[in-house]
DUF4270 domain-containing protein
Amino acid sequence: MLCPLGVLLLLLTSCAQDDSSFPVGEDWVESDTRVLYIDTMTVSSSTFKFDSVQVSSTDRLLLGAYTDPIFGKTTSKIYTQLSNSTYTLDSDAVFDSIALILNYDDYFYNDTTQVQRLKIHEVLQDIKATEDGYFYNTTSFNYDENTVGDVQFVPRPIDEDSLHLRLDDDYGQLLFSEIQENEINNSDEFLRYHRGLLLDPGSDNTTILGILPTSTLRIYYSLPNEVEVDESESFDMTFNSSYTFHNISSERNGTYFSTLEEQEDEVASNATNMMSYVQGGVGLATRIDIPNLAGLDYIEGKGTLLSANLVISLNTATESTSLPAQETLSSYIIDQKNVALGTLYDYEGSEATASIAAESDEFSQRTYALPIHYFLDEKRTDSNGDNWYLALVDPENNQSVNRYAFFGEHAADDDLKLQIILIYAVYDDE
């Protein structure tokens, strides 16, 4: 059942803060008090793109590509360094085959029913983090144009727990011989010859898959004296999670976002179909501008702000059918050049997230409310507060490609417009 949006939001904002978040004393108790519901404060939205997203040691790796009618083509490659604690193989062992075992996460985005392509290359540079110690979605390394595997498959992330991809026998035989003949005896020697792998999806792929960092390169072999001749032995090289990451990029030509070359660039919602946008992985974010806080000072009488919520509605018609939008959104304080200054907090000292305030399948409605009381109070009093803005991003921004389209301040439907809801108390207004 759909609760009327205005009533629900009034209740939400009235109860968002406890008494500790605003002054209450004898002046309050002994005066005539008026509580104002204000929903006309100026607010605007736009879309910008962070230069990069930190992707070190994520719980999920993303692999694949797909094309979206709004966001263009998104591609996620995986760079991985392989490791093992031992490098020994029986001298009588006989090489059989080599395979890449990719363990599924429960995440996927877009169409998994089509045939996908994956090319596997050897990396030619040491996989090292940048000077600040992190990998980013823009980090890349040179690789051998020749592949050690070029495979096609239909992913089944719901029905199966892993993807088994057979690689070239010549590559497997090389690794097998180097270990068996003691040319490689430890990790340092292995990395001297084999710095890592690049998993590169085909350009016509239709999905991005979640892959666990526990994935493996597996060499199968047999021992001549084994009684069970049908059973294969195996030697595993696991993904080294400290040196494994995804490189996520997007092709934005022909989209609303083709002009977003620098992080300080932005495109207003009135130039993007009255919408603002978010896409995980590539750094696309919604910027919120609240320019006229001084207007509160012109309300007659002494007063205090009791609660404040930013209300933003999702255009559910653009939601992916494979994975719905998240139930919360993360938020950051940014400056005039869209550089993140820090996480948004509330008066309790907790991270402030946008959560669902109203939702209806019948009316295709999902509206988020973000508590911004503390932010507004700080913005009004800080000497640099005029240069503070808010950024909305996906809560799994560094390990998802979730995408959102939000109605802006000029939406045709008043119930879906971006707005700020204030509860403001005025007392002793003589």
The chain has a mean pLDDT of 89. Residues 61-251 form one domain.
